[in-house]
Amino acid sequence: MEFLLQQIRSFPAYQRLLAEVRTGKQHSGLALPRAARLPVLTTLYEDLRQPIVLVTDRADHALQLHDELVFWAPTCSAARSSRSAR
Q1: SS3 letters across the chain
Q2: pLDDT tens for the chain, residues 1 to 86
Q3: Does the reported pTM lie above 0.85?
Q4: Which one of 39, 60, 78, 82 is at 20 to 30 Å from 12 when CA atoms are compared?
């Protein structure tokens, strides 16, 4: 997993996005393929160390993303929260 996150960091498009976010530029959406969303957001979270909002259209998508977040960002407090708290 760490290898993939390092590969994401090496992309010029990711570096531009990271620089823009650090300067305060807002992004309404990244239009990422579903499979790329959590790896990219995890990499951003690790690099920025600030909350990131991910909006989805359905509750079942939110639950699925939460479950996958446990894999991609196990140190993130949101990933470790209990499903029973929902």
Answers
A1: CHHHHHHHHHCHHHHHHHHHHHCCCCCCCCCCCHHHHHHHHHHHHHHHCCCCCCCCCCHHHHHHHHHHHHHHCCCCHHHHCCHHHC
A2: 889 999 999 999 999 999 999 999 988 788 889 899 899 999 999 999 988 888 889 999 989 988 898 888 887 766 655 454 44
A3: no
A4: 78
